[in-house]
Amino acid sequence: MHSAPKGQAEFIVLVALLTAMVAMSIDTMLPAIGQMARELGAANPNDQQHILTSFFVGLTVGTLIYGPISDSTGRKPAILVGLAIYAIGSLLCYVAEDFFTILAGRAMQGFGAAAPRVVSMAMVRDGQAGNAMARIMSFVMSVFMLVPILAPAVGQLALWAGSWRSIFAGFLVMGLIAATWLALRQPETLPRRKRAHFNLPGLWAAAMETLTTPVTLGYTLAVGCIFGAFVCYLSSSAQVFQVQYNQGDAFALWFGGLAVAIAAAMIVNGKLVMKLGMRLLSKWALRGFIVTSALFLLLSLATGGHPPLWALGLYFFVNFFCSGMIFGNYNAMAMEPMGHIGGMAAAVTGFISSLIAVATGGIIGQFYTGSVTPIALGFAILGCCAWIFSEWAERNR
Q1: Residue 393: predicted pLDDT
Q2: Rg over CA atoms, the chain
């Protein structure tokens, strides 16, 4: 493979940094959320989950806004505004002395991080096409796969070296570096002649078309269900591994090892999707998700909500492998009929699926009481809901 031109290589690294900010902002702090919640006076142990879900709430709202705004203002101003909000949220979390302040700061972080997450992909589409775009996206996805594996270890190292506040100092520095790099080194990718006025009626029309197109709506709802299971896992994983299974600092190793399943699924899906098709692959992956959740639920009930640690790890690994196969395929199928309003539709479908994920994942996580049974039951229910929505979508194709 030929090396990328110098300018393109810098662009690839910048886009990778921008897209990795969301995952870094979630996964790096997982080892610390229990300590944070205790120090800041959370009322009960499950309240620590709100430190994750508040970030997702901000991210969900931002997902709907930044894409259409960047079509009007240009890519750089939209991202820079988002990075400024992200930096303010990071600083607010760093100085927080009570639980409400940390939640407000996390929501600001999520809202700000939505800009680099959404608009950086638009930057790639603006200036690249065909093989060049595929090459950049493949590199970005490789970074995406590495972050969940490595980020918790980074957070654990920060805890050993200082306190949980140092993690937010790191987020602040990361945001400032990204903003400075973008402002000084990256040219605007959307020239003025190609910009469109912010189109609120167009956004509303895209929302209505999304809600009235069965294929798009069905697969969007299905993505929300599977994503909801993952949000539940993210928000409760520290309690499960660190407290229930007494893994302590080894939690970072467990989380990183399980994240390998999603990376492996993306690789396998990429190799098989052209041969077998995304519908067949995602259908069998969803069946695997439901069956493993049902079997693990039975095991959890039989063991009083505390199955062996090896069984828990195996269940999550298989479940996340299935989820990784489902995510990309379902998103692609949801967007199939939306080519004529791709940008607006992506914003709307992303908002709807994230909203469902935050609501369902947050609710299921609150039922955690030192037993993994509610998590297994929630995963099984969400898998069945995803199956119902995807079947409805297919029958109304």
Answers
A1: 92
A2: 20
Q: Do domains 1-187 and 199-397 have the same CATH topology?
A: yes
What is the rounded distance in angstroms from the CA atom of residue 58 to the CA atom of residue 63?
Answer: 9
| Confidence band, pLDDT 50/70/90 cuts, at residue 4 | very low
CB atoms within 10 A of CB 210: 24
**What average pLDDT does range 356-372 have in this prediction?**
94
How high is the pLDDT of residue 308? 97
pLDDT of 297 > 80? The answer is: yes
Query: Binning pLDDT at 50, 70 and 90, where does residue 69 land?
Result: confident
What topology does CATH give the domain 199-397? Growth Hormone; Chain: A; (1.20.1250)
**Cα angle 115, 117, 121; round to 5:** 105
DSSP 328-364: HHHHHHHHGGGGGGHHHHHHHHHHHHHHHHHHHHHHH
Tokens of 18: 């921008």
Which amino acid is located at 79 in the chain? Answer: I
This prediction has a pTM of 0.88
Specify the amino acid at residue 52.
L
Domain range annotation of the chain: 1-187, 199-397
CB 323 within 8 A of CB 290: no
DSSP 173-222: HHHHHHHHHHHHHPPPSS-GGG-----HHHHHHHHHHHHH-HHHHHHHHH
Least confident of 20-24, 72-76, 194-198: 194-198
pLDDT of residue 343: 67
Angle of helix 6-27 relative to helix 130-161, nearest 10 degrees, comes to: 40
Q: Alpha-carbon distance 176 to 87, whole Å?
A: 7
Q: Output the average pLDDT for the chain.
A: 88
Tokens of 29: 């702090």
Question: Superfamily assignment of 1-187 in CATH?
Answer: MFS general substrate transporter like domains (1.20.1250.20)
